[in-house]
Design a protein that fits this description.
- The structure is a single chain.
- It contains 5 helices and no strands.
- It is mostly helical.
- The chain has helices spanning about 5-35, 45-50, 60-80, 85-95, 100-120.
- The protein has one domain.
- Helix 1 packs across helix 4 and helix 4 packs antiparallel against helix 5.
């Protein structure tokens, strides 16, 4: 019988599903309604960052959709114990650090959880 998936890995996958799922919902909202969700009439802080590099924030709906689907898929692979699942979750966590503010916090926690999960399962060679 295989060992249970570490709780740290499950928590990282859950955060990836929440973050990716929100990006999917926000992208679909953009496609259907014509705008992203706004808080107090403002896009999230990520929009300032995207604008600073010369990209219209309203043009990245497809990017949100692709990243969101990829994050959810990576988390699913991790939960299904695919050999690359943890590395894919880690890669998308690093890749979404720009998604200020919730995405950044979620990504940092995911990175810490994946690293902790990997450290926990490293076996030390016997002398």
């Amino acid at each position: 019988m295989s060992r249970p998936l570490p709780r740290t890995a499950v928590a990282a996958a859950a955060l990836a599903i929440i973050s990716g799922g929100y990006m999917i919902i926000d992208a679909i909202h953009r496609f259907v309604v014509g705008d992203f969700f706004r808080i107090g009439g403002q896009l999230g802080p990520w929009a300032v960052l995207v604008s600073a590099v010369g990209i219209d924030p309203l043009s990245i709906g497809p990017v949100f959709l692709v990243i969101g689907v990829a994050q959810v898929a990576a988390a699913s692979l991790l939960l299904l114990r695919h050999p690359w699942g943890d590395m894919l979750v880690l890669a998308f966590a690093v890749g979404t650090l720009w998604y200020l503010l919730f995405g950044t916090i979620s990504s940092v926690i995911q990175i810490a959880l994946i690293v902790a999960s990997k450290r926990r399962h490293v076996t030390v060679a016997q002398p």
